[in-house]
Design goal:
Largest sheet: 4 strands, mixed
CATH topology of the largest domain: Butyryl-CoA Dehydrogenase, subunit A, domain 3
Shape: globular
Strand order of the largest sheet: 1-4-5-8
Number of helices: 11
Radius of gyration: 21 Å
Strand content: 15-25%
CATH architecture of the largest domain: Up-down Bundle
CATH class of the largest domain: Mainly Alpha
CATH superfamily of the largest domain: Butyryl-CoA Dehydrogenase, subunit A, domain 3
């Protein structure tokens, strides 16, 4: 099957490529060291139409690849905002919630964050301990969340909490929370190996009173919502991994032509040629898997085979990006270990792709279970 972008999708891709080259690439290294993304860059992404509920998922994925080639941290922020915050509100929210929060998250350039993981809970949703107890017209939330991307900048949070602890993960509910609500506070920044610009933080909820009108998708429906939104998240991360892999390949080819050892460019050595050939083949395969999953998702969020296609794309693309980053660093030699070259950042960022929004091991389980149906 051939995946060709249509005219509109190519335009979106080209706009993202130009933005990445002119705005992101010159400053990515410095802001990554600082561990932040300036509001002006967020605003620039919003001006391109990259924040909010995407109108064309395939075009959006093409744009995300281009952003990731320059700075994966921004792509991670965009992904969380769109797939894990805007999408569940658009799909599961009532009309009042959609009118208020989607406008805020799209037109007003406010960021959203997603608070699911905790210090002792990640892929195991049954280990979540944050609670939401009904009290009159409100729920009172108490708990501790971790790895909350954009948590320090976000105005809107989707928070998952237990409304019926006796049911485990089936007693989870999702809440839309204004981060200015009393009882919502940002804790320590999670000092991460990669994706440092995404500024993941801890979020502390202490007697945080959230109106019952902010319950998203019904009582005890949080796990079902999380399972639904993760499909888009998997594809987003696959796109980020493809972008990192493409950047590794481009940098490797250029360095191999420029770097000389034993009197000739290292591009003439067969060992380097094989590395580049493997990188190119795997990244191309990852790109095809990613666009196949994106096309299914664009056709319908309930498309047959979407779960397996998304899991395959994330699994293969994330691991291919790690191999590409490893080879790129080898091709650069000692220079690749220096922060003045971007491959060390690609190496660090690629490692996150196999971990967040489900590990490679979880993706393999998902694929096997889909095959066994």
């Amino acid at each position: 099957m051939h995946f060709a972008l249509d005219e509109h999708q190519r335009e979106v891709q080209q706009q993202a490529r130009a933005f990445a080259a002119s705005t992101l690439a010159p400053v990515a290294a410095e802001y990554d060291r600082q561990g932040r993304i300036p509001p002006a860059i967020i605003g620039g992404a919003a001006d391109l139409g990259l924040l909010g509920c995407e109108r064309d998922f395939v075009g959006y994925v093409a744009a995300l690849i281009e952003i990731s080639k320059a700075w994966a941290s921004l792509a991670a922020v965009i992904s969380v905002h769109n797939s894990l915050v805007c999408y569940p509100i658009a799909r599961f929210g009532d009309e009042a919630q959609k009118k208020l929060y989607l406008s805020m998250l799209t037109d007003r350039k406010q960021l959203g964050c997603y608070a699911f993981a905790e210090p002792l809970a990640g892929s195991d949703a049954g280990a979540i301990s944050t609670t939401a107890v009904a009290d009159g017209d409100h729920f009172v939330l108490n708990g501790h969340k971790r790895f909350v991307t954009s948590g320090r900048q976000a105005r809107v949070a989707i928070i998952y909490a237990l409304t019926d602890p006796s049911k485990g993960r089936d007693g989870l509910s999702a809440f839309i929370v204004d981060t200015y609500t009393p009882g919502f506070s940002v804790g320590e920044t999670n000092e991460m190996l990669g994706l440092r610009g995404s500024e993941a933080v801890d979020v502390i909820l202490k007697d945080c009173r959230v109106p019952k009108a902010n319950l998203l998708g019904g009582l005890n429906n949080g796990f079902a919502i999380a399972r639904t939104v993760v499909e888009g998240g998997r594809i987003d991360i696959a796109a980020q991994a493809v972008g990192i892999g493409e950047a590794c390949l481009e940098q490797s080819i250029a360095k191999a032509k420029d770097r000389r050892q034993f009197g000739r460019p290292i591009a003439e050595f067969e060992a380097i040629q094989w590395m580049v050939a493997d990188m190119s083949t795997e990244i191309d395969a990852a790109r095809l898997l990613t666009f196949r999953a994106a096309a299914k998702r664009a056709a319908s969020p309930d498309a047959a085979g979407l779960t397996m296609a998304a899991a395959m794309a994330k699994l293969f693309a994330s691991e291919a990006a790690n191999r590409a980053a490893y080879n790129a660093l080898q091709i650069f030699g000692g220079h690749g270990y220096l922060t003045e070259y971007p491959v060390e950042r690609y190496f660090r960022d690629a490692r996150a792709m196999t971990l967040y929004e489900e590990t490679s091991e979880i993706e393999r389980l998902v694929i096997e279970r889909e095959l066994a149906k």
